[in-house]
């Protein structure tokens, strides 16, 4: 069910003209942003790191807007009630949606790297290409599971869009996707440490640049994500009941 | 097997909302105010009522989408609050309108996804989906994206989706809304066929002819309560002892309508707009001939056809609903 659900949701998402346009434009913007940031910072030698970071931002945006936006889209389509009516645990119903958004997020990573290569000549010389090929899907899977925890909130709230907008930039900033965590205020450290995005981004960066061992970071990312999945599953059951009590499954 | 497919006792639902942050206003609307009903296995039961009467809220409490604020309900013997999953395995839900489907997927993909959600075994899915596409006459267009479907086709796909897991109880919430007459007739045939094979159907509709043709029993709900319940013939008796005068007119004012309502012998007066014309319906006691008085009250208004006839189920429905029209849903606004 998870595979069929994720595949069909990915199909539905990838046929949206809005999604297609966004997918074409956003990676170019993010690649440009990253390249000029690093050039301005006097670190042109770290352009690959910049491109990978920008790609991760794209994955995060996809998961975040996917989890929130997809739930809201289901509400607009009138399908949220229909899928929640299925005799399955609510988490199993929603997980394929967040996995589908993570899948479409993979494209953001690839597109950002390709645009970085084509427009700015960033050499795609990965220090550990095989590990990079493992770390990216691992990170995306982790973020998809994290998405379930976010989605549980979005099932309850009719105006979930407001929440997704406020979460996008703080999370990629705190997770060190583009700016090193060491450059941020000390109080952000504990927040970063519990976010799977921090460890996923670190694993991908380590695989791309060879700056450290990949497995520990990837392992921590997946462990935190699994905890998020378990917590999300529990929350989803609770939230589904709250949503039925508060009548927020439907648009009105 | 439980004796009744659907049982509701004192079912109530209050919607609470809050607006504003600095001076929040809380609003409560009591949408359903104590509904009692039982529907037997294999019965085709109609729930009629005006907009906002509580039909959809009642259905959503019965199909587990809403938690009741009070009372209890059972589907096939399972409580809708505590045995949600057991209830969901046994029910199908179809609502009217364009929404509720994945537009950018094909009909087959939509059905495949819902078959997975409803636990239809993989080896059975292909055959079941094929059967249902044939039943709702979408075979041949099954690989087209739903966004290109007409409303009638979407409605038929909704029905196919609702039947995937062979539910014992099917909730049809205004399935023929916005559907053209030919498609509506096909829908009615499909619903009648389902009931004939033993599926319990709870149907809400605005179309009296549809309810009259299909339903064994009908409940009229208004103001959150069931106002009348019985077979179509029994309900028609609510208009016994009455006659109906219909006047086609152009330019009747609210004041004239109000004056007609106060005429001796007049029980109900309502007005519909059909195209450019107004159709004034006046129900009166059978012993009174109100035609002359009504035409006098319409002095100066251009008139078309004037007909007198025996009351129908629709007239009985109007009589029942108007009887409670003065009552409003209890709303409380608190700071």
From TrEMBL, chain A:
PANTHER family in alphabetical order: ABC-TYPE MULTIDRUG TRANSPORT SYSTEM, PERMEASE COMPONENT, NODULATION PROTEIN J
Record-given protein name: ABC transporter permease
Keywords in alphabetical order: Antibiotic resistance, Membrane, Transmembrane, Transmembrane helix
Alphabetical list of InterPro entries matching this protein: ABC2_TM, ABC_2_transport, Nod_factor_ABC_transporter
Segments crossing the lipid bilayer: 20-38, 50-71, 92-118, 130-157, 169-194, 214-234
UniProt superkingdom: Bacteria
GO MF annotation list: ABC-type transporter activity
GO biological-process terms attached to the record: response to antibiotic
Subcellular location per the Swiss-Prot or TrEMBL entry: Membrane
Membrane topology category: Multi-pass membrane protein
GO cellular component: ATP-binding cassette (ABC) transporter complex
Pfam family, one: ABC2_membrane
Residue intervals of the ABC-2 type transporter transmembrane domain: 11-206
Automatic annotation (TrEMBL), chain B:
GO molecular function: ATP binding; ATP hydrolysis activity
Species of the source: Micromonospora costi
The UniProt record lists the keyword Transit peptide: no
SMART domains in alphabetical order: AAA
GO cellular component: plasma membrane
InterPro entries per record: AAA+_ATPase (IPR003593), ABC_transporter-like_ATP-bd (IPR003439), ABC_transporter_ATP-binding (IPR050763), P-loop_NTPase (IPR027417)
Protein name: ABC transporter ATP-binding protein
Subcellular location: Cell membrane
Domain ABC transporter: 9-248
